[in-house]
Amino acid sequence: IIRNFNMCFSHGNKEVFSCRGIKLAVDWFLERGHKDVTVFVPAWRKEQSRPDALITDQEILRKLEKEKILVFTPSRRVQGRRVVCYDDRFIVKLAFESDGIIVSNDNYRDLANEKPEWKKFIDERLLMYSFVNDKFMPPDDPLGRHGPSLDNFLRKKPIVPEHKKQPCPYGKKCTYGHKCKYYHPERGNQPQRSVADELRAMSR
């Protein structure tokens, strides 16, 4: 899930809303073989560029919408005042429900405080990035030096190297079964539940 707002301003040197920034990021993911890429943009960004809200390469938004990659979040005018939906909530909700990642330099502190499962998801599935001219560059270590590699991070279910897994203190006497969050070497390579699956189970 690509967050458009800070991405466009990052690419536009914080002066203009550069729609080309979105395309560069989308192309980076598509070239790596990712098929489910969604971009959220407020509907009012379809309006004509103004001196106080400069937008460049606006035709990119229409093209990505036709390709079913870009979704405009609702907005309307009420008595001359623009009413917009909170697009960050769309982003976090879809990423959480689809077990995806969020591409953004935002911390989503307000939404992280709403639900504990959202906080854990945002902490573990947020991908930051930089633009070097026209090159979209996410970090090779999205969660820091001791976290997963970028390739591993981008998996639906990141692989945890066995030497980094914490063994269960109860060992074979553990009664939690597949719900146990610790590593059980005696169970072999049975599939582990994804982060989102675990969080959904905990919130029930």
Automatic annotation (TrEMBL):
Basic and acidic residues: compositionally biased ranges: 195-204
Q: Where in the numbering of this chain does the C3H1-type domain appear?
A: 162-187
InterPro entries documented for this protein: RNase_Zc3h12_NYN (IPR021869), ZC3H12/N4BP1_RNase_Reg (IPR051101), Znf_CCCH (IPR000571)
The name this protein goes by in its record: Putative ribonuclease ZC3H12C
- Molecular function in Gene Ontology: mRNA binding; RNA endonuclease activity; zinc ion binding
One GO cellular component term of this record is: cytoplasmic ribonucleoprotein granule
Keywords from UniProt, A to Z, are:
Metal-binding, Zinc, Zinc-finger
Q: Tell me which residue ranges form C3H1-type zinc fingers.
A: 162-187
A Pfam family annotated for this UniProt entry: RNase_Zc3h12a
PROSITE patterns given for it? ZF_C3H1 (PS50103)
Q: Which Gene3D superfamilies does the record associate with it?
A: 3.40.50.11980
Q: Where is this region: Disordered?
A: 185-204
